[in-house]
Amino acid sequence: MVNDAGLLNPDEKGTLWVLSPHPDDAVLSCGGTLYRTAQAGLPVRVITVFAGDPRDPLPPFAQALHTLWGGGEQAMAMRRAEDREALALLGAQAIHWDLPDVIYRRDAQGQPLCQGREDLFRPIHPDEAPWIERIREALDALPWEVGDLLLAPLALGGHVDHRLVRAAVEGLSREGIRLGFYEDFPYAETEPFAGLPGWRPCRVALGEEDLRMKAAAIRAYRSQWPIFFLNEEEILERIRAYALRVGEGAPAERFWFPPA
C-alpha cells in the first residue's frame, strides 16, 4: 500500500513518535516521512533512546570512537547537538533520554560489554535485560493520546541497541496507539526485510524535496555520516536508490505494521 499523504491523517488528531536508538537512526531510516509529516502540520517527536553521557572511565573501544568522531569528552553532547540541528531541518522535535550507548555499558563484573565493532552486532547480553524494562517505563510516562503512532526500528543489521529498543516496544500495549516499524538504513541496503506472517507494509511516497531535505539532515550529523558514506554526494544517491527500491520504481519509505 502506498500512502501519498503520510502515515497520519492530517484531518485527525495524532502525533508521530519515532524511537531512534542513537542520534541519526531515525533520520537515516525515515527522514523523508518525518519531513512530510511535519509539513502537513502534524507534530513529530523523535526520541533518541541511548543519548546519555558516558561515565568514567571510558572503555577502550569507546575512546577509539570518540577519537574518530571528534568532540573528546563532550562527544555525546556534540552528537545531541547534531541531532537537534538535523531534526530542526525536518521540523521534528528532538527528545534525548539519558540511557548509555552500548559502547559505554559494562556487565555485572564491571567489564565493558563492547570490546570491538563485532560486539555491536550481537544478541542481547543477559546483564542488559533491565534496559528493556527501563525503556518501557519511559514509554509509559509519555503523554500519549488516542490516534498517536509510534515507530520503532526493526533492528535490521542486528545492532544490540536496536534489538533492545525493538524488544521493549514489542511488549508495549496501549489502547488507541498504533505501532509500526521502520527499516534500519543503511543496514537495510544489504539485509532487506520481507515481512512476517500477518504483517502489513505501508509505503510513504516521497518527492524530490523530501529526499533532499532528508539528505541535508543526514549531513548535519558531521561526526557520523563519513562513517557510512564516501562523500556528501553519495548521501542523496544512496537514499534515493533505496527509496526507489522499496517504492518499486517510485521513491518511498516503507514501514511495517504487525497484526493488531
In short:
The chain is an alpha/beta fold and 260 residues long. It has eight helices and eight strands; from the N terminus they run ββαβααβαβαββαααβ.
Notes on the protein architecture:
- This protein is α/β, with parallel strands linked by helices.
- Helix content is 37%, strand content 15%.
- The protein has 8 helices and 8 strands.
- An 8-stranded mixed sheet has the order 1-7-8-6-5-2-3-4, with helices on both faces.
- The two termini are 17 Å apart.
The strand line-up of the biggest sheet is 1-7-8-6-5-2-3-4
Distance between the termini: 17 Å
* Percent in helix: 25-40%
- What are the low-pLDDT stretches, counting only 5+ consecutive residues below 50? none
SSE pattern, N- to C-terminal: EEHEHHEHEHEEHHHE
Whole-number mean pLDDT: 94
The main sheet comes to: 8 strands, mixed
As a percent range, the share of strand residues is: 5-15%
Rg (CA only): 18 Å
Number of strands: 8
Which structural class should the secondary elements be placed in? alpha/beta
Tally of helical segments: 8
The best one-word shape is globular
Q: Which key terms come to mind for this protein?
A:
alpha/beta; eight-stranded mixed sheet; 37% helix
List the helices and strands and how they pair.
Layout: E1 2-3, E2 16-20, H1 25-39, E3 44-48, H2 60-69, H3 75-90, E4 93-96, H4 129-140, E5 149-153, H5 160-170, E6 178-182, E7 200-205, H6 208-219, H7 225-228, H8 232-246, E8 252-257
Parallel strand pairs: 1-7, 2-3, 2-5, 3-4, 5-6
Antiparallel strand pairs: 6-8, 7-8
